[in-house]
Amino acid sequence: VYQPQIQIRTGEIIGVEALCRWHHPRLGQVAPHEFIHIAERTGMIKPLTEWVLNTACRQAVAWKRAGFPALRMAVNISPSHFLDQDFVPMVERILGETGMMPTELELEVTEHVVQTHQQNLSIFQALKDLGVLLSIDDFGTGYSSFASLKHLTFDHLKIDKYFIDDMLVDFKSRLLVGAMIEMGHNLDHGLIAEGVETAEQYHLLRKLGCETAQGYLFSPPVSADEISNRTY
Ligand code: C2E
Ligand code: CA
Ligand code: CA
Questions:
Q1: How far apart are CA 180 and CA 46, in angstroms?
Q2: Ligand 1, residues 19, 90, 106: which to mutate, most atoms within 8 A of Cβ?
Q3: 3-state class (DSSP) for residue 117
Q4: Ligand 3: centre distance to CA 48 (Å)
Q5: Ligand 1, atom 25, residue with closest C-alpha
Q6: What pLDDT shows up at residue 144?
Q7: Which of 16, 71, 132, 160 would you call most buried, defined as having the most Cβ atoms within 10 angstroms of its Cβ?
Q8: Does the CB atom of residue 160 touch ligand 1 within 6 A?
Q9: Rounded to the nearest 10 degrees, what angle do helices 45-65 and 87-98 cross at?
Q10: Which residues pair with 222 in a beta bridge?
Q11: Which of 17-26, 109-118, 141-150 has the highest mean pLDDT?
């Protein structure tokens, strides 16, 4: 399924995030926080990520061929797989096979990989050389290292829903969101707020200078068909 990302200034959809769903014949809908974790432990995460990347890129190319304006396609990448040797070659192969424009693909990684290991730095660089966009997911939770922000090249910071949730009632959260936006901009990164559920949150984010928002206020994650119908 795909969840729209909205440009706050104009209210337009500028991208979508691909989110995995598993419909099990007996268990019904299984949530990603259950099966992604198991996939990581059982070695299934590689074929799963490959399937998600492939499906998402094919969908983006299909939308484009149908004449829809270009949308950025964001895909979540598990830290364990991101650090794997064959990850970059896999991305390159999928871009070639699907005809996806690298600059329209964004890979979301959590702060767990944002550490200044030499290996991580070279993977970030190799992906940048391919031309794909990179964003730091769940920013502000996990273990953030300011040192890694200094070394890594990426495009967007995604402010975690945890801060968006109570920024209207908790002054500290509001200050932290403001600080993240300002810091991100000073370092030349775009900001994406996740889990935006109310118009009040949207207006505050706009006032604080955040450029992109994603959340139930606009749409939950929906099928590709629903995206096509809504957008155009
Ligand atoms: P995430 O990357 O932080 O994705 C955002 C999650 O918040 C999604 O849950 C989305 O449906 C939900 N969400 C979005 N807007 C709102 C809102 O306004 N309110 C509320 N309450 N929730 C909102 P989902 O789809 O259940 O995914 C959970 C997590 O599973 C994701 O968190 C991501 O870490 C992981 N995940 C999902 N798909 C994939 C995948 O293909 N690969 C990998 N490695 N991880 C995935
Ligand atoms: Ca994400
Ligand atoms: Ca999150």
A1: 32
A2: 19
A3: coil
A4: 19
A5: 19
A6: 64
A7: 16
A8: no
A9: 30
A10: 2
A11: 17-26
> Among the residues of 138-192, which ranges form H helices?
146-151, 161-165, 171-186
Which residue from 118, 57, 45, 52 is spatially nearest to 86, judged by alpha carbons? 45
Q: Do the Cβ atoms of 154 and 106 come closer than 8 Å?
A: no
Strand partners, 106: 74, 133
Mean pLDDT of the region 208-228: 96
Taking the whole predicted model, whether its pTM rises above 0.85 is answered as yes
Structure tokens at 11: 């209210």
Could you tell me how far CA 72 lies from the centroid of its own chain?
10
Report pLDDT digits (tens) over 81-137. Answer: 888 889 999 999 999 999 999 999 999 998 777 666 677 788 989 999 999 999 999
Identify the CA nearest to 67 among candidates 222, 195, 231. 231
